[in-house]
Design brief:
alpha/beta
């Protein structure tokens, strides 16, 4: 087993450039690493970007390269993402699936829903309402939105225990199929 540094996993599908400085500020304020998982195209300039957008992009790239607390993972494998999330102290996301994985692995969760993903709000709100987690959706990223090490969503977990066990088994099987039978680190053995 490798040593895992204290970290927050961020799974972000919206455009990353407008939010990167906020994730850097969060990492510095909480004195922890932020492992930022995103799709390849969320940290790219759109075709026809203006000179201002290009300069903002370069500024963010430079700032990211200088910040030792934020690691960017573009197009990570499912195994890499699940391992990181399962060993994190919390998850910040704009994704329904990351919300589900954070629930399965009993991680503290904060959900931010940018305008470009507004259609996801009802899906996430419905789930969070069913489990009684009223404080999970936040309007924006702030440096103190999650206190690293504090449990903010434990209240209703007992209702979910059997569902979590079934989901972990399904996830382990799916990852094995994804790797075409190649043995990988078993996600069901990660301590919750």
């Amino acid at each position: 087993d490798k040593k895992v540094n204290r970290h927050i996993t961020v799974y972000w599908l919206s455009s990353l450039i407008p939010y990167l400085s906020e994730f850097i500020a969060f990492a510095q304020a909480q004195k922890c690493e932020v492992h930022l998982f995103t799709e390849f195209n969320t940290f790219q300039l759109k075709p026809g970007a203006s000179k201002r957008e290009y300069l903002q992009y370069l500024k963010m790239r430079i700032r990211l390269s200088r910040c030792k607390r934020v690691r960017l993972y573009k197009s990570a494998t499912p195994d890499e993402f699940i391992w990181d999330l399962s060993t994190s102290e919390g998850v910040i996301t704009d994704s329904f699936h990351a919300l589900m994985f954070a629930t399965i692995y009993k991680r503290n969760i904060k959900v931010v829903i940018p305008e470009e993903r507004a259609s996801m709000r009802s899906r996430m709100s419905d789930f969070l309402q069913k489990v009684g987690w009223d404080n999970v959706i936040v309007d924006h990223i702030t440096k103190d939105m999650m206190v690293v090490g504090a449990d903010t969503v434990s209240g209703q977990r007992s209702k979910l225990e059997s569902w979590i066990a079934i989901s972990k088994d399904w996830l382990s099987d799916a990852l094995m199929k994804c790797q075409c039978g190649t043995p990988i680190r078993s996600v069901s053995t990660v301590q919750s």
